Amino acid sequence: MNTIKIFCPATIANLSCGFDVLGLCLETAGDEMIIRKSSEKGIRITKIIGADLPMETEKNVAGVAALAMLEKVETDFGFEIEIYKNIKAGSGIGSSAASSAGAVFGINELLGRPFTRKELVLFAMQGEKLASGNAHADNVAPALLGGFTLVRSTNPLDIIKIKSPSELYATVVHPQIELRTSDARSVLKQTVSLTSAITQWGNVGGLIAGLYTEDYELIGRSLHDEIIEPLRSVLIPGFDLIKQTALDNGALGSGISGSGPSIFALSKGKKAAEKIAKAMSQIYKNMDLPYEIHVSKINDEGIKVVI
Ligand code: HSE
After folding, report:
1. Which site among 9, 233, 288, 297 is 20 to 30 Å from 163 CA-CA?
2. Which domains are assigned to the chain?
3. How close is the Cα of 14 to the center of ligand 1, in Å?
4. Is 171 annotated as catalytic?
5. Is 229 helix (H, G, I), strand (E, B) or coil?
């Protein structure tokens, strides 16, 4: 195999209580990439459609992730990467993660899979470091592994994949403003009170237990964030109203998707997710703010090869 075309899914990181450790993979939103072997050694980005991103390998998240991988495996050929972006940069649904994870996944396939999907997370994290200044894994892990992922530790890497409850759906609305992850991280405090930490780790445990036992009510009760959301939500137009509207329309829970500005809601069943999408859309219509909306089942597979 000399060429591969792949679908690189969008992801929702944090999931309210799990800043930098929890994430899920979406099915209906994502980029595509074509990666081919070339006789010239090294990595070249040969095409980017749909976004204004750097073509230089060392300045592109896909390029940097791929270079990190090639440091660990000997090849006497190189790779060309074409990126077809649908996920907007600064949207909060893992745009840089889709490119970073896609590059290493595609190259790994062309090399005959010397690395497991879990091992690829470490390389993809280098792309995240370039994008936000911080090598967080809570978008690249669900992009590569699918389902829900818990990043118990990044050093050493310890990632647990959790299969999604079968009826769980996500609704994600993206108000069309760009919020850079680095900016959304700069508003955070470096210390938290013990009281807040207790509430937060109670909720993380509750969410994980809810996912394993398919207890939708417990999942909903655990989707709270009293550490990050109060600091970041002020950067997102209409956040409080959108969240309340999602809850009023049957969402199990709702919060900031990744570092924002997208807002997510989880619900039981597609009908509920669509009802929430309609209600969220109406809020931004009333505010005259352009938006994109996605309703998606949880993607249990992660990145996949497109035939
Ligand atoms: N955990 C990261 C953050 C995710 O919230 O900054 C960025 O998508």
Report:
1. 233
2. 3-162+301-305 (3.30.230.10), 168-297 (3.30.70.890)
3. 7
4. no
5. helix
